[in-house]
Each structure stands twice: as C-alpha cells, then as structure tokens.
Design a protein that fits this description.
With about 375 residues, this protein is of the alpha/beta class. It has 9 helices and 15 strands.
Length: about 375
C-alpha cells in the first residue's frame, strides 16, 4: 500500500479540524451578525457604530464584508488607532472594534452660522452622521459629509452659498472650522455681563476694534482669552468663570446678517500677592531686584505687573545681555493658595541655552494658563 503524500495528510488534518472547531467551517460563507460593540470610548455608542457603518444586526454578512467595513472605519481616522476582532460561533459572528482615545480631536466650530445655534447644528449633524463627534481630528474622513449636511442647512435658510472647511489657518490652531462662503456677519456691538465686570467705558473702548469686523466663532475664543488677560488677571481675578456666550442675530439686512455678542463672565475669587523670590542669580542681584519690586504682601495680585517687571528689570537689563543673539532666559512660576487665595511668585533666571527645570510635582508652578472655551463660544 502506498503511503499518503504529505499534502494529502495535511488536508485531511485541516478537514478534521474544521469539523471539530465550532464556527470555522462557516467562516468563509454567509454568517449572521449577532453583536457589535465598540471599546475604548464613550463618545460613540454601539448604535452610532451600527448606523454609521451600515451594519444590520441579525442580518446575513460575510467576514470579507466586515473586513471592508473595519478598513473603512480605520480610514475615517476618528481615533488615534483602531482594530477589529471577530468571533465566529457556528453560523454566527460578532464584531468588536477597539479604539485608542489617548489623543482627542479638535472642536468643530461653525464660523458664521449666526442665524442658528451650535447646539442645533451639532444635533443635526449627529442625526445625519451617526459617527460625528463634537471633537474630530484634522481633516477626518467625515469632513465631506459634514459639509454636505451644513450646505443643506444653508439652503433651507434661503442662502445660496457653499460651505467650506479651513484646513490651514485654524487647523494648526486646534480647531475644525466650517464657514459659509460670502456671508457678511458684521458685529454691531460687544457687551459683557457678570460679576465684577470691567468698567463699561474701558471695555467699550477695547471692544471697538471688534465691532468693525465680521463675526467669527473661531476667533471669538481668542477674544475671550484676551479679555481675561487684559481685564481680569491684572485685577487679581485668576479664576474667572466663563459662561455661554450669546450671539444674537439681528436679522437679515441687504444681504448681511449683523449680530450682537454678549459675553458672560463672572470674576470668581480675588487673589492677593504674598511674596516673590528670585532664583538663579547672585545674592546682590536678587537683593537689588527685590528692592525694585513694588507689589506688597496683601496687594491685589497683578499678573501683568509680573510680566512687565520681568521684561523691563531683567530681560532688558544690560547685565542680562551677553551678545546680540544671547541673553538670559527668564521664567515665572506662581504657587496659588486656593484656600488662602494668596500667590507666591518665583522668578528664575537661566543662562542662555540652559533648559529650565520646573519645580517638582506639587510645587504649583503655573507659568502659563490657557483658557479653552470652544464649547461655549457662539455657533
């Protein structure tokens, strides 16, 4: 009797394996999709994934179809990474999508949609694009779908214009900005409401520049940040509370849509200056700077004063200039007592090209504070 060939032997083993391993025999044919789930995020539900990917739980599918679906989801680049896992049980198959959400996307901002609200646009986009999220990566695979839905909203409002996506200026500044081409949205006035608001005459003088420009939901974020910097932190209000900005559309006039902007800001607690210390300098130099320091313990903390002192008394001093291209680096850190509401300032001077080592964890260094208001600023 002739011995079976190695190929025939392997095929026999594989056939027997398929008979005794549940589900493998039907893996290549039609299978019933019994379950879909997404793991690693709370920003998309299973229902979002099923609708967004066109899946039908309880319907027939194939492993090849699911592979194409998962590849499509990956190409959308909604998350840092994604991978799929299938489980076959007899003639049933389930799908699990694992995503990595370590790096979230950037806020979706509607530049000059002043006749509607951000909430209304977000709700409409979510209804028509189940995979949509208020934060998306730059130029995600949903961009064209978002433009399509927004253009439908524009047409329904009686405006014959296209919607664009800014993939240059605003994307490098951390925002996904959509805008309507050719729409004029002049700002007629800017108002501020809230506890301990700046003097009206000073604020109106400051705001005159913005009443000459077109409304921009994206730029409004910067404006609020500058307002905090110019009117609140110099007066010791280091933790102002920014509420929802109101953009009132005043109707259509000669093809334009003028708006009134109302900023809601509560000052929060008032912080007092405690003490200052200088590091990285010889004792005589530190003593000389301390003698020039004007803020006294118990004075209202003025963040602008600290910046001016660093510039005028240190960075611009002859002893800090080593050449035309080299000068000392100056850094400030603030230790803020949330209970005492007192601020300890540490100013450190480093020789050029030396890296600044921030205080150890728990030291309370807060050299720069960024106020992110994307969810609360107009359309």
């Amino acid at each position: 009797m002739s011995k079976p060939s190695a190929g025939r032997f392997v095929r026999a083993i594989l056939f027997a394996f398929m008979l005794f391993v549940p589900g493998l025999a039907g893996a290549k044919g039609s299978l019933t999709l019994t379950k879909v789930q997404i793991v690693g995020t709370s920003r998309l539900s299973t229902e979002d994934v099923v609708r967004g990917l066109g899946l039908k739980v309880g319907r027939q599918t194939t492993r090849a179809d699911l592979l194409r679906t998962c590849d499509y989801f990956k190409q959308l680049k909604l998350f840092q990474s994604s991978r799929c896992r299938y489980r076959v049980d007899g003639h049933n198959i389930s799908l699990t999508i694992f995503v990595d959400e370590k790096r979230l996307g950037w806020p979706v901002v509607f530049q000059n949609f002043v006749w509607t609200t951000r909430e209304e646009l977000l709700a409409r986009l979510k209804k028509e694009i189940p995979l949509f999220m208020p934060e998306l990566p730059e130029s995600s695979g949903l961009t064209n779908d978002i433009i399509r839905v927004l253009e439908e909203a524009v047409v329904e409002h009686g405006i014959k214009a296209h919607v664009g996506y800014d993939d240059s200026f605003w994307t490098i500044r951390g925002m996904n900005v959509f805008f309507v081409y050719g729409i004029s949205t002049p700002v007629t006035s800017v108002q501020i409401e809230g506890e301990n608001a700046p003097p009206p005459e000073e604020f109106q003088k400051w705001a005159q520049f913005y009443t000459k420009e077109e409304f921009s939901a994206a730029r409004l974020t910067w404006i609020v940040n500058w307002l905090i910097r110019d009117f609140y932190t110099p007066r010791g209000y280091l933790r102002p509370v920014v509420g929802k900005t109101i953009v009132q559309c005043l109707g259509e006039k000669d093809g334009t849509y003028p708006v009134r902007v109302i900023l809601r800001i509560s000052s929060g607690d008032l912080y007092k200056f405690d003490a200052v210390k200088f590091e990285g300098l010889a004792e005589p130099r530190s003593a000389s700077l301390l003698a020039k320091w004007k803020l006294k313990p118990g004075d209202t903390y003025d963040e602008a004063y600290v910046s001016r002192f660093m510039c005028e008394e240190i960075s611009s001093a002859p002893w800090a200039q080593h050449s035309k291209t080299k000068s000392d680096d100056v850094f400030s850190c603030t230790t803020i007592g949330e209970t005492s509401q007192k601020v300890l300032v540490t100013i450190r001077v480093e020789a050029p090209r030396k890296a600044y080592a921030p205080p150890k964890e728990g030291g309370g260094c807060s050299a720069v504070r960024e106020i992110r208001l994307y969810y609360d600023v107009g359309p």
